[in-house]
Amino acid sequence: VVNEPGGSSGTASPTSACCPWAGVACEGGSVVSLSLACSPRGSPAGCSAPLAGPLPINWTLPAGLRSLDLSANRLSGPLPPGLGMTAPGLTLARLGHNAWSGGIPPAWASPLSPIAAGRAVVSLVGSCGLCGEAGSTGLPEDALDVRGTSLGVPCPGAGPDCAGERTGPARAASSALAQVTVVLSVTGAGV
């Protein structure tokens, strides 16, 4: 069960129900890859309706997820702390070219995090609103790709505002991901 924007609740169907969706890859009925990138690799056309806005702060991933791609959208706000905790098999998360703000969530450095354990790489390339101390996260040096961010710069007065980088209609991230979250929450990752 998940609360959707507007206060309505819904019940989730089995995880395998989302396996035929574009951008979802499954093995044995479990979601192992979620690709909601707005600009697919090699496609000059881009995306006419990127995900936009903040992710819910308590957004979590299914335990079996190994790959996540939310790159080249218009996502904003803080990075979700749950990214580093709820998917122990995560090996790659592409979150770059969004309008994230703030720093690296401390939860990503938890000993239980695949990021802290050096098993996952997170790409934040081109997310110029990220700021703060990158070196004091406690994460392995090669766990984060932070090219094109303002990490290393104190947050007040950090780099340029990224919000206007992409144009065109946008889908609210919280509502667009609500349907995905409903189905994925069945995996036990919770929301």
Our measurement of the CA-to-CA distance between the termini, rounded to an integer number of angstroms, reads 9 Å
Q: What is the subunit organization of this protein?
A: single chain
Task: Indicate the overall shape.
Answer: globular
Helix fraction, binned, reads: under 10%
Mean pLDDT: 73
Biggest sheet, in brief? 6 strands, mixed
Q: What is the total tally of β strands?
A: 14
Rg (C-alpha, Å): 16 Å
Structural class: mainly beta
Unreliable sequence segments? 1-14, 158-191
Order of helices and strands: EEEEEEEEEEEEEEH
**Beta-strand share of residues:** 15-25%
Q: For the largest beta sheet, what order do the strands appear in spatially?
A: 3-4-6-8-10-12
Helix count? 1
Description:
With 191 residues, this protein is mainly β. It is built from one helix and 14 strands. 40% of the residues are buried. Mean pLDDT is 73; it is low at 1-14 and 158-191.
Quick overview of this protein structure:
The protein has one helix at 173-184; strands at residues 2-3, 9-10, 24-27, 30-35, 51-54, 67-69, 74-77, 92-94, 99-100, 121-123, 131-132, 144-145, 150-151, 171-172. It has 191 residues and is mainly beta.
List the helices and strands and how they pair.
Layout: E1 2-3, E2 9-10, E3 24-27, E4 30-35, E5 51-54, E6 67-69, E7 74-77, E8 92-94, E9 99-100, E10 121-123, E11 131-132, E12 144-145, E13 150-151, E14 171-172, H1 173-184
Parallel strand pairs: 4-6, 5-7, 5-14, 6-8, 7-9, 8-10, 10-12, 11-13
Antiparallel strand pairs: 1-2, 3-4
